[in-house]
Fold each of these.
Amino acid sequence: MKRSRPPSRSRSRSRTRSRSLNVRALVALAVMAGAVAIALTMPVRLGLDLRGGTQIVLETKSTETTKADREATDRTVEVLRGRIDALGVAEPTIVRSGENRVVVELPGVQDPKKAADVLGRTAQLTVHSVLGAAEKPADATEGRTETAEDGERVLPDESGQSLRLKAATLTGQDVKGADARFDQQNGAGWTVTVDFKDSGSDRWAQVTGEAACNPAGDPTRRVAIVLDDKIISSPQVDPSVSCGAGITGGSTQITGSFDDAEARELALLIKGGALPVPVETIEQRTIGATLGDEAIDAGAWAAVIGTALTALFIIVVYRLMGALATVALLCYGLISYAALAAVGATLTLPGLAGFVLAIGMAVDANVLVFERAREEQAARTRPSTRSALTAGFRSAFSAIADSNITTLIAAALLFFLASGPVKGFGVTLGIGVLASMVSALVITRVLAEFAASRPAVFRRPRITGISSTGPVRDALLRRDPFLMRRPRRWLAASLIVLVVAGSGILVRGLNFGIEFTGGRLIEYSTATQVDPDRARDALADAGFPRAVVQSSGDGDLTVRTEELSDTEAATVTKAVAELGGETEKVRDELIGPSLGEELRRDALIALGLALAAQLAYLAVRFRLLFGTAAVGALAHDVVILVGVFAWLGKPIDGVFLAALLTVIGYSVNDSVVLFDRIRELLGKERKAPFDRLTNDAILQTLPRTVNTGMGAVLILASLAILADDSLTDFALALLIGVGVGTYSSVFTASPLAIELHNRDTGSRPGRRRGGRTRATGKSEKPGKQVPTSRTERQEVR
């Protein structure tokens, strides 16, 4: 006679579950309330690739007297900030990056030449007495001559006459301010008035007083004002100025053939002060406002349609639970947006793609829970939807945590080692992964357990979507295939695919983008479509025979060359305009050769660290055997993805690097889920053959792999079809990566783990005939088999 469970214990457990549900509900409400408040009060800052503008990366250079260290770079940032403020740019951003780099973002600025000229000039202002005309022209002395004894130099004046200058009497440190003014009274046109500090005022009177002692018309009666080793003004001291008295009052006026813009720019440079060290432009990107608007629209449509298709898919598969997971996905979107705003992250175009991709990854956690709940409910004699869900969340937690941590490793590497928009992708992906865990483990659980406890749902368990095991699992369990009977055949097949794809690297070579090679890439939108061959010939005639010309987007033209000056870039633009009529520059990117080499090195470091980090984590979390198998499969995926892009001639650039590291994080998810199930089965059936346990784990996790893969494919297909052209290759890389990663986790990582295990133990895989092992002839039941019908379910003990 069975002893019934005491009512008090049952009521106690019920109260505990109710209390836990209430706590989770309060946490979910608090998170959502905070997300709504942040979303309404703190807008997300858009990157330049979404709102248009210019980004310039400057690198400080050491001189003989000053080292370009962190302190000098910080002083440079302050000087540059003053210049940018004077330019009147709305919402500029200027930050130090590393020891000696400064990143400047200028929204809305479409003329990078002007911005680079203003920011890149050292603006070293000096005032010199003129010793007389030079015997040798200045160009014979390379523009200037200095002697160690007295600091004299030779520079050409405004008319080209070479002058011998005395050592500087005043510097920019003596300047109090400068202002551009139009001198209508004297007819001098635009002038720049310079005000000196007290000490500078005395020295200005001294230098002009000395010059006034020389006869009118003599070069020695002039005072030279030099900016960055160029005489910008060398006026004669007015005859009214007395010898020895000089010009008092603490100010002077610089005259010349200035127009409005030139006078204001000169005043800006003088007032802003000199840079403590010279700077060099190593990266420059300009995105047209139109291109940014199109990118936002395309990305938004991709997000909406991809999310809708994914939601429809999980609702069809999981019914009520799928609908609740869709609500949780919407909450995930709000949480991610609020988190981006709260941390002050910049949303870039790759970041927008990361946001969309994380939706597919958020589905993964829900699918894991629902599939485990299906197994739990099918394995119980008196199934309860709520108890099955509780067990599903508990059983799936370790797999969810492990798979998300591996993706966070990839996101962290992108953040610390990448630059520009790709770093923004890493930030968005990391935030998306954390938000997906909150969405699945808190919000979905609250909604699902609340719905499962309703009497209407309890009476109709089929509407929950987890009362049956699903068609994929039913088909697998009916056929019960032994996929791992000959693991070496799967490894041989993987090797063949690896060799075919990888040979593209040797045969076709890699088409590195300008991020890794250095150079300049300009994209034009023309009134009439231009044939790339004609444009290539025109540019060759213009002096650019090595320019790479390609069509892009809807009739746009992309020109990629070695590093160009702004003057040479204007020549390229003119050549394109002669073929296409009215021409608009929608994108302009300049990468210095030193930065390209550095980015290539960082890419290899990031790739190596990603594989090493995954191996270390999996070895600690599971066993070294599983970690080695998973990393072997990851290396297989990386070579295939790079090889396919080599065969297709697609660019290997920063966006591809983001896709590659994402594939590493995403691909290892399948391996983690599979190895987590193998570890669980090993704990129950330690004496069962390893290949049989692995095969059972594959069959039990394959429904999750299929459903998760479908969710990711729907999202990525939306990106590939609807998103901006620059994200098409990104989406293609991820689609290839998802397909190859799904295959490798089952047919590369699993057979490799079996072979490594057999090598360690010295055993050979068992071969099944009629459900029996050749070694023992006994029927084998490794692990807990999931019944395919309610009749079987009632026979489980």
Amino acid sequence: MSKLLMTNIRYHQMLMIFRIVSIFIFCITILATNISFPFWKIYSPQTGISLSFIFLFIGLPIAILNGFALARASSIIVKNKSRKTEYFTLFILTLGILCFVIGIAHNAYQAIPANNLNLYRQPREYIVNLIKLGKLHGQIRCLQNEVELEKCIEEIELPDKYKGLSRNGKVILSTNLKEISIKFTHSTYNFGDGSIYIVYSSLKNNLSEAKWQISK
């Protein structure tokens, strides 16, 4: 009888440890989602996303941990259907995975420059208006030669709330006598040798409609 009692005690101890580990795995999953895929922060889009890196070094460990925990929780439920508490463990693990999957889908969508432009066009237009009104500015560097008109380049740091609109939280304002353009850096390629930009451009005389485009 004492042996059976000891076996039951060990079994309940193992269940308690498993629940604690499951909650820990859930917290890790939510933390990884918050760091890699902050899909609930509409004004903090991710630019320069390396999905392959995230899948390999974050997604794979998360999948292994949650897969093990889900399999274990399901096994306990099948073997002992009267243990309703394990349904809660199964629920929080599923919730964590769901958040991570939504984050992946959201960021995979906005990793495409055209989608990122459409998704966050309104906050970018707000930044453009601030720059045009002179409320955002940086250090100006102007160049002039015999071929081109005077051209000025200004690197402007974005407000904290909007830093995610451009890689490194900065935009590049280029102006000459006729045109103004503002570059939001979306991502880099060739190990950082080149960049993909979301560019706003318009004529200073407002005779043509302002346009947005993707450029390298």
